[in-house]
Input
Amino acid sequence: MAAPSRDFTAPTVQLLTPEGDLRPTPEAEGYLPLVEALPDAALEQFYRDMVVSRRVDVTGANLQRQGQLALWVPSHGQEAAQVGSARAARPQDHIFPSYREHVVGMIRGLDPVAILKLLRGATLGGWKPEENGNFHLYTLVLASQTLHATGYAMGLQFDGATATGDPEADAAVLVYYGDGSTSQGDANEALVFASSYATPQVFFVQNNQWAISVPVSRQSRSPLALRGGGFGMPGIRIDGNDVLASYAVTRQALEEARAGEGPSFIEAVTYRMGAHTTADDPTKYRTDDEVAYWTARDPITRFRTWLEGRGASAEFFDRVDEEAADVAADIRTRALELTAPPRSDIFAHVYSEPHPLIEAQAAWLEEYENSFEGDQA
Amino acid sequence: MTVETIADASPEAGELRGVHTLSMAKAINAGLAEAMRNDPKVLLMGEDIGALGGVFRVTEGLLAEFGDRRVLDSPLAESGIVGTAIGMAMRGYRPVLEIQFDGFIFPAFDQITTQLARMNLRHDGGMPMPVVIRVPYGGHIGSIEHHQESPEAYFAHTPGLRVVSPSSPHDAYWMIQEAIASNDPVLFFEPKSRYWPKGPVDHDHAGLPLHASRVVRRGDDVTVVGHGAMVATLLQAADIAAGEGRSLEVVDLRSLSPIDFGPIVDSVQRTGRLVVAQEAYGFVSVGSEIAATVAERAFYSLEAPVLRVSSFDTPFPPAALETEYLPSADRVLEAVDRSLAY
Output
């Protein structure tokens, strides 16, 4: 169903062109000092993160095809959006992911095998946020986590854990979701609450163009970034395949949040190069031309070109490839060693405090299963 | 329990001692205030709960005593209220939420059932969710659509939630505090037709634990079970029955998840007959669960099938028809007669 087109535009913050030139758009110029302040080691880390992420993606997809995972959720193409924003957060910040931000978790210290455990069907969670850089659990009901993040940010305010003026202590919340999730009621309610209470929070939307098979045009007739202003907060559109833009814009928005200036909304325009999950078949709904367009805008290729221009050595790139291969091999080995949890996990922690129905059912199952043990002998 | 003092306890009173006569609305108010004084992590959030004190005035005066950091007038969005409360609970707070009316809880149903109820499980026990959701519920107030419903079964059906409903001011005062002290999420259903009748509240003695059911009237011929506002109807039915020479034993469920079946089964083992009454729809209801469980546990004691008295399996009708729709003492007695006829 075609509708008459209307003219909505949002300028895009881009520092690094698809060709790998540092040539900020007018909207990006203000962010240049943040990028210029980055030491080479930080830039190299961005590259390493992105390459490792892509390699982990391949490993995850292969494990799924080999029947070792129920599902794999790829990030191929979205590495710059994820790495730049994650590297912009401070250790005291809290991160609420959707379910595609594997490299964000790794940057916060999460062992990616924990993610494989979830996708293998061995746990409903997989890690403790407080032991993994405040990287909270994946949330599979779209946009639910936006409200949890906002409530958490309100809690930071109640605790006086933000906006004290101490950048080493003040905390903020970074929440990830996608273009499809922006249509959910919860995503919109979260923006209302965040704006109303001026929470220390950054909403980071990865617009990867597709919600499984439905294009972003079905979610919004205007750039998603414009939604920020409608809710009373800055809405900034960035080239999500530019790791420098992702880093700088998120960094500034988080600093404003920590300083008590309220929330921001970032739309990172990127592309899901692979399928939505391994259960998807993107050849049914998108064209080769579109994929070719985005392949030419690959986030890793352009960043590598730029680093090479700055004098990064061939040995550096080779070393990163080796590291990524090692990480992937290690994950694969350990994923195959994952075992099913004990059946008591069905009942454990459904309630924090004793519950007679659950206790009775746990005891019954134990007795029932044990009744077969003699049969096998 | 004797009434030593007759006074309206003001929420500012603090240090409440002795027995006071309070309405349920005032008793919950006093219980909330007590919980907030005892634990700085307790906070209230909901629509119109601040300056107005809630549409039923249950939170009246609490904004003045505790300030707007602990009594939050939220945006008008139920899913937002529950979803942000989950984040606050992750941060160590104990949010007590007010859903303005029973029929308005459904925008929050997803956050309650897919998130709140499972968050601790998902975290392998590392993320308790001490969130209380207060829901004024039930009919008898002559109001418009979505304002008189009894949605408790949806939540009793959901693992991870606890569901309770007081029937008296005394229980309301204590049960709200016990619900707030629970580390699991609690749906706290407040029978709004019982908000205003007054009763004694013993501020020194809680009585039963949160999830215990209780025999509120002894009898020998038929056991009748209900919760919330239905308990008053059952007691009325028992009075009428007594005049006709029939003795009803009345059990107040108090908790709908878990259900404390002990007193019910004990009672049925003596009377041999059970009638379960509820304002909710009867199909796939709390009453159905009680009927099934009593049939399993007290089969040889039963002299008659367990009978259910419910509202009809239709949406709550226009209020002009509510007296025909809601179970009355007469409808309970009709079922009692049928039970005794076996």
The longest helix of chain A spans residues 40-65. The first strand of chain A starts at residue 12 and ends at 13.
